[in-house]
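Render this sequence as a predicted structure.
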Amino acid sequence: MKKLFLAGAALALITGHTALAADLPAKTYTKAPVYVPPVYNWTGFYIGGNIGGGWDSFKATEIAPGNAAFPVGTAFTPNHGSGWLGGVQAGYNYQFNHVVLGVEGEYSWADFSGTASTTSLTIPLIASNTTDKLKDFALFTGRVGYAEGSWLFYVKGGGAWGDTSSSSVSTFGGVQNATLGSGSTHSGYVVGAGVEWGFAPNWSAKIEYDHIGFDSRTVAIVSPTLPTTFTTDNVNVDMVRVGVNYRFNWGTPVVAKY
């Protein structure tokens, strides 16, 4: 009788355990979330600085009234200079999908200089040794770019304004007989292209090439001993720069996910 009671108790315990296990919910297995890497967002205002170097070309032609040594139409020897530059920039970008549109203004200090000598065709004993300098310039441009991750490939174009100066030493038979000077503010256009890399949420670095073509300007050549003469000057500038920008991202997320 005792054995029968123990067998019944064991059977009841096993049956109850099995029923309890059946009432428990089945275990569920979930996959780990898929990691989506953040995509750099170029939208926002930014400021930055740049530094670089380049070369320029000054071409001058004598215009009325001219003089005996350099009559009207004389083309002076082109002056090819080079030097360094550094400046600041500020702008705004707006990105949608991979397209980035923006505007940018900048100002740069420059020290481009070159010297060329022109010998008179009418009076071969007279020569003009001219030093031309590009002192500074400002640019205002629009930009169109293609963004791929943290990289931005862009082109730009707009207006350019620059200050130049010229000084000439006139010689007669190798002996200095006059010093001439002039200065001018030029306007023109700029076109360029570059690559920018977002290396931190708000920071980017860039490398850029630009070409500036200044419009022809009439320049007065003033001398304390000789009559004032006039030339038309054409100036072209090519430069390569590296720079860094800080992007504020006001009102926009630092990163976005497509």
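Summary. The first strand starts at residue 39 and ends at 40. Residues 121 and 200 are 61 Å apart (CA to CA).
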